[in-house]
Task: structure prediction
Amino acid sequence: MSSEQRPDLVLDARSVTKRFGGLVAVRSVDFTIPFGSIVSLIGPNGAGKTTFFNVIAGVYELSDGEILFNGETVIARPRRTWAEPIYWFVVPTILLILAVAALLAGIGIIGHLLFLATLLAIIPALLVALTRPRWYVRMIGRTGIFRSSRPNEMVSLGIGRTFQNIRLFGNMSVLENVMVGMHSRMHANLLDAALRLDRHKREEEAAVNDARKWISYVGMAGYENEAARNLPYGYQRRLEIARALASEPKLLLLDEPTAGMNPVETREMTGLIARVRKDLGVTILLIEHDMEVVMGVSDRVTVLDHGEKIAEGSPDEVRANPQVIEAYLGRGAASA
Amino acid sequence: MTGHPTTGPATGGTKPGIRQRLSRAMSPGTAFSARHQSLTTVVTFAAIGILLPVIVLLPPFSGFGTQNDWVGGFADAGIFVLLAIGLNVVVGWAGLLDLGYAAFFAIGSYTYAYGASPFTGLHIPFWFMLPIGAFVAASFGIMLGAPTLRLRGDYLAIVTLGFGEIVPAVFLNASTLTNGTNGIVGLDQPSFGRLFGVGDFGFTNPWPYFVTILGIIAVAFMLLSRLENSRLGRAWVAIREDELAAASMGINTVTTKLLAFAIGASTAGLAGVYSASKLSIVSPDQFNFTVSFTVLAMVVLGGMGNIWGVAAGAFLIFELQSQGLKQLNTFIGGLGLPAFNLGPITVDLATINFLNYQYLLYGLALVLMMLLRPEGLFPSRRRRRELHELPDEAERGNVELSEADEVEL
Result:
């Protein structure tokens, strides 16, 4: 477990390593994000930024290290996973013992019924292990069994993300996209929806209201019913942010939010990012190539090169760091 | 706004939540307009129930058969409508191509055979068997769905095709349990017990069956169409559009996909129970691949994703194949066309039985459909968008496909 916990950190990544076969994409990177800050991750192409990002978002299993979110270990090497099957078989085993006891005691019918129940009990047990509901994760967590969170679990913990290559739900409307973002904050289940219970109706109503607010917050009011794929490029980027914000994140991961934008759009996006932090108090981790954006909004900048952290500090410190100049422009430029 | 407690360790103590802060930053939005979807469904089905038997009394339909023949045909068509709206959940909404859908139909039918026949000696009433059949089929839907969770597209189709073959094969070969190729006969007929004044169920009286299937479809329809605009319905569509993005928005893809399989299967289970009670016999040959294929063709032709379109498509196709082709035989036979003589082959249109060419005609219809109207006869808005891609967007899609985000879940 964690050696020391720092309450000021929303994210604390400790010696994170990610290997793809023989290739080490991220090597032993320590990285912290204080609450309420905007932290940037920069580096040349192929430096491992997006890989690191995907590790935090729960998409990749990490090879080594540990990630604490809000002081709690959420991603690390799996531990004691061999013990997990014990949980699946607790109920069936009890039933089986009862069945054998019944058969030995001469109560044949009850014995047979219990034996049948044993077989049937295995199926829901396996299903629970497969779908991993929160209560199950918490239950097995108490005995030290640990598995890294899946992407959807990271969202319910409070990490929202956007993608480098926009991944909107293109054929859904803008409103629906944002409402999908609210998925983890909504609770209506199958029955609520099918029987249209009050809980479902109230929740849907509130969700539509909230979604409209999110849409106008990113400056897209009036586009609610447009298909996401028909939006102009800059609006697609903004919609991704609105969709991520709709999950009410503590930490928002933005993967190159201004890629492919013209200077005007870039300025608007930078403004939006600053606004999200100021109005909503969301902490932001930014991957970006556009140095103007990075230097403009970041509190701290971390530089990755070949999967290793080569510099960290305020934008000015990083800009002056010879190692950083070397990574970007080559050895000669650093000495010149 | 109703503040849902954002549980979990990530919730920071006394600070206002992000949603409260948003409310402060923005003015209140417009109200949500409630739709009278369910009322529309009920009224529509009541109208269909009254109009269909009346229409067939008018020419030209009255010339094709008695009213009872037609109503019996409609009752059979209802089975396929039910199957099609169930498959629409799996294929149209969740985007999981299921080629073995007949398996769940078979499981529903055999459930009824076990619950209400002399074979087991149990005689559970039809009305109780409906939910039981749906539940059993749903369980099998989850069981067969679970191993396919990591599969997509072609691979998923192949595995489900396999399941679709395995289930009837098991019913065929486990002959001590299922009576093998002879099937289970003498299943109980449902009974209204003098309700509704439509008489008793029987081979000569199709009316009770017609009313029953109409009711089952209306209920299934109402429940399913409610799901479409719910949290779950949106999650299905999101998974179909982009699974990684869906997972990154907090959707548990495992649960959501399994629910799609379960709900699709339960609808097929209802259809199975009903069909078994109507035929009063179940045998493995009722559930071969052509059933899966026919239902899938109905979903595609009707308009994937649009529950009304799928239902209409299924009904039209069923009536075309059962009545249309028969009438085509009579019509062409009555024209008195001379036989063509093409060397060694003599083609006499008058003696061709078009019913035998049913699947050839399906194939033709599907090919034409794919060329002319790939989104189906009555497409959902979403599918139409998807299949009529703007050319510049197609290009941009290619450019944007880099490997950075293409990861395995």
In short: Chain A has a mean pLDDT of 88. Residues 170-248 of chain A form one domain. Strands of chain A lie at 9-20, 23-34, 38-42, 64-69, 72-76, 159-161, 251-255, 283-287, 300-305, 308-313. The first strand of chain A starts at residue 9 and ends at 20.
